[in-house]
Fold this sequence. Notes:
- The structure holds three protein chains of three kinds.
- Chain A is of the alpha+beta class.
- Chain A has twelve helices and 13 strands.
- In chain A, helix 10 (275-281) runs antiparallel to helix 11 and helix 11 (288-298) packs across helix 12 (310-328).
- Chain A starts with a strand and ends with a strand.
- The model of chain A has no long low-confidence stretch (mean pLDDT 97).
- In chain B, the strands form seven sheets. Chain B has a seven-stranded mixed beta sheet, sandwiched between helices.
- In chain B, strand 24 (565-568) and strand 25 form a beta hairpin.
- Chain C is of the alpha+beta class.
- Chain C folds into two domains: 3-79, Roll (Ubiquitin-like (UB roll)), CATH 3.10.20; 88-164, [2Fe-2S]-binding domain (DNA polymerase, domain 1, Orthogonal Bundle).
- In chain C, helix 2 packs across helix 5 (142-164).
- The longest helix of chain C is centred in the last third of the chain and has 23 residues, at 142-164.
- The interface between B and C is large, with 66 and 63 residues.
- Strand 13 (349-350) of chain A pairs antiparallel with strand 18 of chain B, so a sheet runs across the interface.
Amino acid sequence: xxxxxxxxPGTIAEAVAAAAxxxxxxxxxxxxxxxxxxxxxSRPDRLVDVTHxxxxxxxxxxxDGSLRIGALVGNADLAHDAEFARSYPAVTEALLSGASAQLxxxxxxxGNLLQRTRCAYFYDTASRCNKRxxxxxxxxxxxxxxxxxxxxxxxxxIATHPSDFCVPLVxxxxxxxxxxxxxxxxxxxxxxxxxxxxxxxRESALEPGDLIVAVRxxxxxxxxxxxxxxxxxxxxxxxxxxxxxxxxxLRIENGRIAEARxxxxxxxxxxxxxxxxxxxxRNVVPTADAFQEAAWRxxxxxxxxxxxxxxxxxxxRIVVRALLLAAAGTPARMPALPASPFxxxxxxxxA
Amino acid sequence: xxxxxxxSAPAHLRHxxxxxxxxxxxxxxxxxxxxxxxxxxNHPPGMLFAVxxxxxxxxxxxxxxxxxxxxxxxxxxxxxxxxxxxQLAIDPDIKTNPFVFRMEVLQSNEVRYANQPIAVVxxxxxxGATEGAALLAPRYEVLPALVGLDAGESYVPPVVGxxxxxxxxxxxxxxxxxxxxxxxEAVYETPPQYHNAMEPHAIVAxxxxxxxxxxxxxxxxxLSLARIAELFGVTHDKIHIRSPFLGGGFGSKGLMAGxxxxxxxxxxxxxxxxxxxxxxxxxxxxxGHRAPTRQRLRLGTDGEGRLTALDHHARTVSSxxxxxxxxxxxxxxxxxxxxxxxxxxxxxxxxxxxxLFMRAPGEATGSIALESAIDEMASACGMDPLAxxxxxxxxxxxxxxRPFSSKALRACYEQGAARFxxxxxxxxxxxxxxxxxxxxxxxxxxATFPALMFQAExxxxxxxxxxxxxxxxxxxMGQGAWTALAQIAADAVGLDIDRVEFKAGTSDxxxxxxxxxxxxxxxAGAAIHSAGAAVIAELADLATNDxxxxxxxxxxxxxxxxxxxxxxxxxxxxxxxYAEILARAGVAEIEARGTGAPNPAAMEQYAMxxxxxxxxxxxxxxxxxxxxxxxxxxxxxxxxxxNPRLVQSQLFGGMIWGLSxxxxxxxxxxxxxxRIMNANLGEYHIPVNADVPPLDxxxxxxxxxxxxxxxxxxxxxxGITGSAGAVANAVWHATGVRVRRFPIRIEELLTQR
Amino acid sequence: xxxxxxxTVNGARRDFVLDDPRVTxxxxxxxxxxxxxxxxxxxxxxxxxxxxxVDGKRINSCLAxxxxxxxxxxxxxxxVARGDQLHPVQAAFIAHDGxxxxxxxxxxxxxxxxxxxEGQAGNDPERVRECMSGNxxxxxxxxGIVDAVLEAQAGMDETNQRRSA
Lengths: 351, 753, 165
């Protein structure tokens, strides 16, 4: 790990000033950053430790019914907040399906939003990677790429965003509050992460010094609590990144879908909001056929970036299943295996 | 002085004593308190940290290293490179015996595989050494990398595994296939796998003049000692190795490899103690792995499902500079009674670290292919897979016609099937679902592993106070040598286990051979048994020749040793304690040595194997393709069980490795660069707790008078065989999709709805 | 630049000067405080061998900078037993053979203790498996680990019932 200056600012303003300098990065829990630094992927000159800043670790309901989650709230603390789980069950399920209990205890909400891709060529500093080193090339494009993007990728970059947490958040129109050199601003989470285009090194809408201070769920997000699920297919039963995942949330009124929300994970450089699929579900009866139609819409424009054509079909099937699960209703208790296809495996076997 | 004090478990944790008893681990308290000292836990005064820099190319030459930049980094003391290193006494590429692993110890600038050590940075702090290694920023002359099973011209290796011929046959396979009513041909692929013991390879080395002190996990203390001695040109008596605990080995700590050698060199270079620990990613190269295979099986059966021929060919790889060949096809030698069997191997050379034995080398890779093919053949015949296996049950070893020294496989099949409920299995696939709609499949596999014996020695002593001592340089890599061997030792000297000081894990003790081949308990146990018998015989001589003893005149054969006393066989009222015998004789301690070794005459006469039957239930999401094993039952017959608790754990572990083989493990190599792209525990998947279902192990009673004095066959590796195939077959039975490339991946199961 | 930090480690306050901000909690414990019970299996948060409790919560100490945890209360495997009196989880690991080589064991035990404090798994074996999935065991002692945790949990439930009765 490269030597760095360690700075522990006393205020948000000091933090922003300290982090605006070239070579500076924020340190929250460090569960991703330290991993990257140990691998030589990230070699910052200065770490601005924001973990001791006051006022960033609260969960509060605002007057308009929004929920504001401080950037330093721990992933596990948020997931274990009973009121939160009742109101936003798909978010809780996504949180609990990510990483391990130890990592969830350490990791923060703000940090999770900014976790970097798991693309092996990004991690392997001997490989060419446009994201790690602008203009160097992409060795993933013709490499071992069965887990790479099928939506929104470019010839410059086929990496995916690995977060589970972000997937239901983006479905629920989460908003990110940012403190920057020119003060406080907010943007939709859907606009925080960028698709690669020809500049995959620019991963987010953040400017130097920008600090995520909170994530906000708008009042409407609570309206889906009765029908919201996160589903994640992975190669181990637990402690694995998604091959593909989906968050589905429905507002069902009088047997019809009044409003649907759908987002996919593991398919693109950002959590992928599937608005076209949401549109076809408006005012329809929740049936498998309707969900099939939505799945086709959700994957419109998908194309393999390598040995990963299966992910398109898998994504369609996950969409259908996630919608079916959501339509069936949020379970009263979090399943033992959150977000797993095996979440409810018990009971008799029959021919 | 013993270097390790094992605290006895509190009485409530004790469940008995000596052979056959399910004693809890005697090293358990140390391990649960974090007091068990693994190599990297040592920190002698003045110690420096050494960190390897490894190659990012798979083939070529290092043309420059920025040594100056590394040396400028705070705390860096020295940088060991091909131009700046202590000289070795011999060329490390010379094979002085078959158990020499060629190693990279900076003998040249040549790069033979990715992750090869190319320099070592030594610093006052771990952080300094780590960054120093990064600052070396090597530049390379890159040559094309040879990657994969089709990398070049294939050849037939002279031997596979440890000294087996590459080809075997009995009967006429082509004629057998030609005459068959049904034939199948199938090709299976298995990936490169890495041992990934939880403990990374580590060494703490200190030189004091010519004397070398080493803390290092090793499965072969004396092999390591001999290799260090020849490399550094010092005599054996100058070297002391401590390896009281291994944090797992699985074969990767069997032979002296480059990295620990570099640690010893670094200590010599700087004249201070040095600790060198591999980073996880550095374990994917210089310390062995399981080679990939492509196996073609051809099977023929007559109209009643009897095999007429079995042809098993395996393609594998070795490195460009050394030879180890995964003997995958040899798995077909022992299990099924075909009148014609042929096994053959060929190989290509690739830019990889040299493959090595990894838990059930050959047996594991071969077993998943063979058990899949048997399942396919059973299905082709419309037969239940168990019925098919029973139809082709080998009453004698098929390749040689030798009788088995013992073989309780039929009982394994029966007991395992009954416990699992196999009889209710529909023959056709994709017939069962659970309440949640998941596909359910049941599969089985036959397990087998040879009952091997190596060479070992032990020293036993009885002390004046009546207590015993047993010394053997045995290795505990998790299998439980500290407990199981102590149980054997206690019985061997007729004492309660708490009255025997059991010493193991250091190189100054008698040679216990290698902890491998599932033979350590048998081999070391036989040596302990024989040393114990010898020291008791001496003690009996003292007593029976002394007219003051109540045992006078009983003769050696006339006494037995029990609970610290010698007792007349014909009159149990006449006995004398060890302490009394020694006190009267005025002897402080008597000692004797014993050996354990294979019995060539018995081996000539009998085929010696452990057997088992594994049954697995897998659930598969019908649309999403994700697989979960939900139940496994294994019934194993492996001779005498020294400690049922530890044996169950070993078998559980093996079954989990089988599950992992079928569903999880695979090193992904970039086909262009030859670099392994998932050299970490996040993406090289081994099962996590949630992947492992409730497991059930049955140990079937088996008495074997031929394998060794104690009748022990070994259980370290057999669990993986059979299990891998059982899981793969369960996935087929659930889905109707036969996947022949392992591990089974989601995309292969998406083909059908 | 030197940084003064203070930690409570297994109940004892430790003040020291950190000469390098790169030092992780894991390396601090192992190489500077010589508390080597906590193990380094991967150094990247992927195996759980380095699990310790920080302010009562289980985390991977390999991915935590010591300097950022100034003031933290740390519990490692060395601080779990009271002399010869094993913690119930430790005793249960021995009784159920919840380990073989023992290298992952300190992390497993710390994780189990942390998990029981979190209270999410209770006595449901499936939840225990899920909640213990951050601790890899290559020997394959998972069955014993789950049984050990369930036994310790049952013992704790019983104690709590007795207390409340």
